[in-house]
Design brief:
The protein is α/β, with parallel strands linked by helices. The protein is built from ten helices and seven strands. 31% of the residues are buried.
Length: 342
């Protein structure tokens, strides 16, 4: 009996090491969708790259409703490595939702999302962390030498990137690169929908974060097929319009609807003036031209737009007051020391 107790006490510390993980400093989040063949090498590469950095880390793998054998391989990895967390979504929600799930469960001071197809290079994570140490809040990857089909991926991506830069005012070359590094505080309150994961650096820059860009490696896909298509460019453009509106006018929607309404009313009055001018100068009856009808339609559109703006203002006020949500974000507070504190 004594020998048995000594054997159990000798094994106990090893059991504790298996179930207790060190608080991570780095959280790597990877969405997975039908990447069964890539998963073992992906895990090995990420583990090797993070091991070289020498800081506590965690790996969050989000199974986005894969239909192949990805789930079983992910569970096997989680069972053998306490630093790995696997999240299985109930169905395929898309890349943005999967990334959001990873961000919600990340606990590190630095969050690094990346793709699960091994086209991103895990060795670039260390270089990104070095840029964060230089004082930046966001480091965005730039796949300068992409290994994708030129017409199907590269050309639409370049068009979308230039359009996003022009509209947002944030100058990056590659918004679509999933490999990025964020300080955790930058992601506070971020909620992603649609294809908005690529706009997180824009949100951060608009809120005062320091954003920089770093050239990263891009490898050809080893296994599987790309899940991206040309239709994604259309989604990006539509999401960009939403992002611009939400950031610039979410707190004052009357500026958009009211401005459009006043413009429509002004145009209606101009059209009506033109119709009256034709009546006076040339004797053309108002009944014989479509101008009066057009003026009435434009005037009605203008009034409705202003009413929509007022309704949106009421909804916005109700939203902020019900949640006690401020319309600002504090970056830092400085105060004089309390008496006696020096």
């Amino acid at each position: 009996m004594a020998a048995a107790r000594r054997n159990r006490s000798a094994r106990a510390p090893n059991v504790e090491v298996r179930f207790v993980a060190q608080q991570p400093d780095i959280s790597v989040t990877i969405p997975i969708y039908n990447e069964e063949e890539n998963i073992p090498l992906l895990y090995a590469r990420v583990r090797e790259a993070l091991g070289k950095i020498g800081r506590p880390w965690e790996l969050i793998l989000v199974n986005d409703g894969s239909r192949d054998g990805s789930a079983a391989r992910l569970d096997a990895i989680a069972a053998q490595d306490v630093r790995v967390t696997v999240i299985h979504l109930s169905r395929n929600y898309g890349q943005t939702a999967a990334l959001m799930a990873g961000l919600d469960h990340a606990s590190g001071a630095v969050v690094v999302p990346m793709d699960g197809d091994l086209q991103n290079d895990p060795d670039d994570i260390a270089r990104m962390l070095a840029r964060l140490d230089d004082g930046y809040d966001v480091v965005s990857g730039w796949r300068r030498n992409r290994k994708d089909a030129a017409l199907r991926r590269n050309l639409p991506s370049r068009i979308a990137n230039r359009l996003i830069s022009a509209v947002s005012g944030v100058r990056l070359h590659d918004y679509g690169c999933s490999l990025k590094a964020y300080r955790r505080e930058v992601l506070a309150g971020v909620k992603l929908y649609g294809e908005m994961h690529r706009f997180v650096p824009i949100f951060a820059a608009w809120n005062g974060a320091r954003v920089t860009e770093l050239e990263v490696a891009h490898h050809p896909r080893i296994h599987g097929q790309s899940k991206y298509g040309l239709e994604r460019v259309v989604k990006v453009v539509l999401d960009l319009l939403v992002v611009k509106f939400l950031f610039k006018y979410a707190n004052k929607p009357i500026y958009v609807f009211g401005g459009f309404g006043l413009a429509a009313i002004a145009f209606a009055l101009s059209v009506l003036g033109l119709a009256l001018g034709l009546k006076v100068a040339k004797g053309i009856s108002l009944i014989l031209t479509p101008l009066p009808t057009l003026a009435v339609i434009l005037f009605a559109i203008g009034v409705l737009s202003i009413l929509m703006g007022l309704l949106a203002e009421m909804l916005n006020r109700t939203y902020h007051e019900s949640q006690a949500k401020p319309v600002y974000r504090i970056g830092r507070v400085a105060r004089a020391p309390v008496n006696g504190d020096g």
